[in-house]
Fold:
Amino acid sequence: MTVSSRREFVLSAAMAGAMFGLDGGLAISAPVLRQKTIDPKAGFHHYTIGEAECIALFDGVWEKAHDPQFFKNATVADTKRALSSAGLRTNFVPIPIAALIVKVNNKLVLCDAGGGGQVQAFNPNSVFVSGKLLPNMRAAGIRPEKIETILISHFHPDHIFGLLAPKTDKAVFPNAEIIVPAAEYKWWTDPSLIGRLPEARRAQARRIQAVIPTWPNILPVEGEDEVVPGIRFVSAPGHTAGHTALHLSSGKAELLISGDAFYMPVFGVGHPEWQGAYDQDGQKAVETRRKLLTRVVGDKMSVCGTHFPWPGVGRIARDGKGYAFVL
Ligand SMILES: [Zn+2]
Structure:
């Protein structure tokens, strides 16, 4: 590569980074990669669960470079095999990000808030694109001011940074009541946490501690309460200390809004025993997955999840001795 063509490459790569809302933490000399997967044609998808109207909202994708540490008890070759068995590309891990709006009794409830274009891919060979939730919400005909309640599964950045405006940390949904699992709130707002976290995670925790407790519209809730009529918290720890799924029921229809309990179903449903680097307590996450799998299959529930293949809602069926997610 000549000096001038190299410069051109770097500039266009930097522009691509700006376009996709990548965090500016990467040095200009590092190649900023373009997104390789294609976004869904429509970034929103309507379906119903009984009388409840659901709207899936696409937020982005994390194209994660393979990493032998990704699973404690599965190799990169195992990971690639799981991806290819679901017809997914295998040269990286394509992790979609989505959120869900549920309309119950004419109330608009947003379940998780996406990454707000503010999540950084630590590995320069990975691409992290988020922040498409708001434009997709508007495209679905919903103004963000109309959201009355937000339910948060856990405090990882791809689930909560969409609550915060870039740079100013201002509330994106100042009128909504934001209901969070009390255990998760307690874990992240503990002042001693920063010192216990690996360096790479500290900025995220500092941001949470500086902002979230100052908002008057945050409501931490203990246990498995019905947090809005028809939607109940389901304790699902392991991925994080207070990770919480949601159970929506309307008439005879039920939906488990599973957050990150199953992560990508090719991993979490197909191989519930695999302990991901993304699970804070691997053993507990396995127990939670097994419990939820038994419940979802036994009760014939529909299931969706933040990192499920778009449009993200389907069923779980028995597959030999194990389970498989079917769209
Ligand atoms: Zn996530």
Remarks:
- The first strand starts at residue 44 and ends at 49.
- Residues 1-30 have pLDDT under 50 and may be disordered.
- The two ends are 45 Å apart (CA to CA).
